[in-house]
Structure formats: structure tokens, C-alpha cells
Amino acid sequence: MKKGIPPHNCQEQSTKACVLRVPIFNHLEPHQLDEIMSATRSVGYTKGELINRAGDPSDMLSIVNAGKVKIYRLSESGKEQLVRILAPGDFSGELALFRESVHESYSVAMEDTQICTITRPDLQAFLLKYPTIALKILAEFSRRLEASEKQTTLVSTEKVEKRLALYLIECLEQEGAATELTLPMSKKNLASYLGTTPETISRKLVEFENAGFIRQKARRRIEILNLDGLRAGITIRL
Amino acid sequence: MKKGIPPHNCQEQSTKACVLRVPIFNHLEPHQLDEIMSATRSVGYTKGELINRAGDPSDMLSIVNAGKVKIYRLSESGKEQLVRILAPGDFSGELALFRESVHESYSVAMEDTQICTITRPDLQAFLLKYPTIALKILAEFSRRLEASEKQTTLVSTEKVEKRLALYLIECLEQEGAATELTLPMSKKNLASYLGTTPETISRKLVEFENAGFIRQKARRRIEILNLDGLRAGITIRL
DNA sequence: TTGCAAACTTGATCAAGGTCAAGGTTTCTT
DNA sequence: AAGAAACCTTGACCTTGATCAAGTTTGCAA
């Protein structure tokens, strides 16, 4: 399944960019960066390619250098649940790094993607040698843990309508001070992320539109017309 | 709100036990343990006492020495969602430790409880001095992250019936090879943990009983009669 | 550019499970 | 041991949102 792009794509160039780009390393001295770079390999994947399945042995940290990676789980009953989307600079492989283990989730390249990898032994050595890296990773983990627990709470205590509204608001905030946002994924994926179905997403967005909270535009763009209304989440029933 | 138990309870004794008991420290040398112990304070809480609220500033790692602590979040709409229960040896305060921050969740003592605390500056110093501690914490975080993401998937893709069945099975596994398990929390809390209501838990357990999968006994004990049936989760409708 | 596949929309139906209410049990507390 | 307070159970009802089905639109590849 995993074919990758031939070795001529593993340029020194992109490996370097990768290490420089990642928050967990970019505070290091140049000579330390060089050291890490030399332990790094770069692999390419083409759009739609499966990077790993749940159950695959996991023994490296993967850092996205270019492209986008979708990480999802399959439930017992075979439903797909989107966990997160990795953008350049994001990393994955957390579980595997600190104990022998296998992947718990699937990942696919959403676009043509370059990934840099460091093996577990190499990373562990770096962590002991440069403890500040561990602090950075701890910070990132605590951020993710926080996000994940929040997501659990959201899914288990709020109705779809509110989950969707909060998600839109979150997207808006990431866009800066804009009044318009671009969904970072398809509605199908969004449904999977929010624990619902594409049909329901579709209907709820129409409701928001009818309530005058938003306007849907082309290419996944959504204009926010009434942020407070959206936040309150009270859509007028007919 | 936070009143604690007077200082005479902060015995050297319990502080030592605490540090020894925790997986993140118990691999260290005696002199290192002494060093950490001297940076540790012990505080007591009485049953039902609120330890912290969401929004409180969080600047220390807390380790449970004795007792049980319930950690929960409140959703936007005011519903309580149980995140986890800390037993002796478990720790909490993750988010706060690596960046200035506030608690995202509430914690209450479920019984009379002793907690040891280490301030952020002290812990950060130890992490840099003894990098193996960071590795231990990373391992624990990755375990929790994994559990949390699994929980999200479960809640967002499976029906209550299956979530409950899987939960029972998980409890059973933790009891060793027994055919009987004790729910570690009230059904009300279990409902909150599984993202449902006490009424539904009650009804589903009766369904499982009618299907011959389990038998409910006194004091939160449940006997498993048909593990495979439970796993398959197909209850016979009338 | 055409054509196919995937994504999206809309409608109709229905089951899961949340809510409200009322009684019955544990379990603390005093 | 009595009383109170939580917890649990059961019933009736009704909302939410999943599912199935059938178009429609969009995006991409040849």
C-alpha cells in the first residue's frame, strides 16, 4: 500500500525545511538542528495514498513538511471518525514514541504530501540529550489532550446544532478578524469530525441560513452574519 | 471553597509515600527522590470538597496520595461530563504545567483525600535535571491522549448500548480473570462518563439482564454471564 | 470538454434515547 | 435508629437526528 515517492524527492532541502519548521525543534541551536536533520528521512505520498492503517507497528515520529494528512479511526461498527488533520509543521506518532506500540488510527494523504520521520531510538536519544525538546513535546501533548477532552465533552453533552455552531465560531476565530471563513474540510469529513452525518450538517447549515446567522458561498466559504445568534444557537422553528 | 485539612496533616510520612508511589518518579535514585520530596507539599480534602473549579489558575502538578478525585467538565449548556477519576498514584494538572494556564475542568474529592503538589517552576527544573521524568510523563500523556481519542470515537460513533457493553468489558478486564466486576462509580457518574443519562443506563442494564448477558447484584456488582453476547451487543427485542 | 465519481442536498420515515414525573432504595448523617 | 438526601428505577411521551432513497452539483482526470 505504502509506495511513497522515489528517493530523489528526499532532498536535503526539504528535510531541512521540515526540521526548521516544527515548533518542537525550532528553538534549538544550528548545530543541534544539523544533528537532528541527519537523523531525519523524508518520504513523499501522493494524494489519496494511505500512509498507515490502525494496527501497523508504529516506531517513528512523523512530521508533515508539505501537504495535509487526515487522521481517522474506525469504530467497532466500522464508522469512520475523523480525529484531526495535520498541516505542515504538525506531527504525529505520539503513542508509539514512548512505548512499543501500534498505530491506533489510519492516516491518508489529502494532497501530495512530504513527511519527515525520526525513529524512536533516535528521538529518545535527542530527548535525553536536549531536555528542552521534551518540554516542547509535553506542551504540545497537553494542548492536544485538552483539545481532545474538550471534543469528548462537546460530542457527549451538546446537540449537533451547537457543536456545529461552536465549530464555525472556532474556524472564524482562526481566520483572524474576518467575517468569513473557509471550512478546512469537506462536509462529509466535518460530519465525521463532529460525530454526525453529512445530511444533518447540510440541514443544519440551511437552518442557520434561514435564521439569518450565516450565508453559504461557493468553495466551502461561509459568511457569518450574526455571530451572537449563532453562539446562542437558538434557531427559529417554523 | 478550598479549605483543606490543617497543616498538621502534611506529614513527612505521607509526602514520602506519595512520591514513591507515583510511576513518574518511582524509577529515580533515593537521593533524587529526597530532592523531589522536599519540593512537595501535601494537602488534605474532605469528602465532597471542591478541589478546584474550571477557570482557577493552575500552576502545580497534583498527585493523589490517598482517596479518589473526580474530574469533570461543564459543557456550554451546563451539563456535567465526567472526564476521569483519579486513584492513588494518578496525577493531574497537565495543562498548566507547560504553559501559563487555568484549569479546564473541575475536581472534587470523592472521599477524604490526600494530594501532594509540586509547583510548576520546581517541576520544570526537575524535568531539565532528570530528563527521564519527562519521558515518563510523555508516556503517561500519550496513554491518556490515546484513551481520550478513543473515548471521543466511541461516543460519537457508537450507540449507548455498545458504549455501555464495552465499558463493562473493560471493567471486567481490569478485575483480572474474574466473572464479576464492581462499577467504580455511581450509575449517575457512569452516565455522565458515557455521554448518556442515568435513566438510559438503568434501562440498558435491565435489557442486558433480560438478554441473559449479565446479572446485577448489590453494591454495584455485576456478574457477567455471557461475555460474547455482551460483546456482540445484540439484545433481543420483544 | 466531456464524463465520471464523489460530494452534497432534500425528502420521508423511524428508532434511539432524552426528558419529565413519580415512586422506591440505598447511604449518610445525626 | 430515624430522617434526609442522593441515587436509582420505571413509565409515558416526544424530540433529535440517523437512515434510506433519489436527485443535483462539483471537481477532477482523461
**Helicity range of the residues of chain A?**
40-55%
Main sheet strand line-up of chain A = 1-10-4-7
Beta fraction of the residues of chain A?
Answer: 15-25%
How many β strands of chain A by DSSP? 13
Poorly predicted regions of chain A: 1-12
**Total helical segments of chain A:** 9
Specify which chain pair forms the largest interface: A-B, 46 and 46 residues
Instruction: Assign an overall shape of chain A.
Output: elongated
Oligomer: homodimer
Reported for the largest beta sheet of chain A, the result is: 4 strands, antiparallel
Structural class of chain A: alpha+beta
Walk me through this protein's architecture.
The structure is a homodimer of 238-residue chains. Chain A has 238 residues and is an alpha+beta fold. Helices cover 42% and strands 23% of the residues of chain A. Chain A contains 9 helices and 13 strands. Chain A has helices at residues 12-21, 30-37, 94-97, 120-129, 131-157, 160-174, 187-194, 198-210, 227-232; strands at residues 41-45, 50-52, 57-58, 60-66, 69-74, 80-86, 91-92, 101-102, 106-109, 113-119, 180-182, 214-216, 221-224. In chain A, the strands form 4 sheets. In chain A, strands 1-10-4-7 form a 4-stranded antiparallel β-sheet. In chain A, a hairpin with a 4-residue loop joins strand 12 and strand 13. Chain A is elongated and about 55 Å long. The termini of chain A are far apart. Mean pLDDT of chain A is 86; it is low at 1-12. At the A-B interface, helix 3, helix 4 and helix 5 of A face strand 6, helix 3, helix 4 and helix 5 of B. Chain A binds a DNA duplex (30 and 30 nucleotides) through helix 8.
